[in-house]
Recover the amino acids of this structure.
């Protein structure tokens, strides 16, 4: 894509910012990307993980992530709704509600469901775990 095309894409995103879920909120590369995105104001990052751990990692790495939306799978106000939707989607593969909860506590599943629920536009993961996960 030419730089003109890229520029047009940026302008479009500035008019209609998108939200991206990063499933590995403590990874230095993700924190750097989030810091840059927050400074650009056209893509809003959601970092998945424990907020205290994420802020500590960001400070240790020297990245400013103030303004990032940080969501923990253990402290999400719509978690019950998420579990219900997940169980409906995976009804042939998830045996119980307890199994669904256990699966959704994993960042990659949790982040995917944020997109499915319309709370984010896209997801990026795989920096610290395999594609199969």
């Amino acid at each position: 894509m030419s730089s003109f095309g890229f520029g047009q894409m940026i302008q479009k995103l500035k008019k209609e910012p998108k939200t991206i879920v990063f499933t590995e909120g403590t990874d230095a590369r993700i924190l750097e990307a989030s810091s840059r995105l927050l400074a650009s104001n056209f893509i809003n990052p959601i970092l998945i993980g424990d907020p205290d751990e994420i802020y500590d990692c960001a400070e240790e790495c020297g990245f400013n992530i103030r303004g990032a939306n940080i969501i923990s799978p253990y402290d999400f106000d719509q978690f019950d709704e998420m579990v219900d939707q997940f169980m409906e989607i995976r009804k042939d593969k998830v045996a119980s509600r307890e199994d669904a909860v256990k699966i959704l506590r994993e960042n990659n599943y949790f982040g995917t469901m944020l997109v499915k629920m319309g709370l984010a536009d896209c997801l990026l993961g795989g920096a610290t775990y395999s594609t199969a996960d």
In short: The mean pLDDT is 90. Residues 83 and 100 are 6 Å apart (CA to CA).
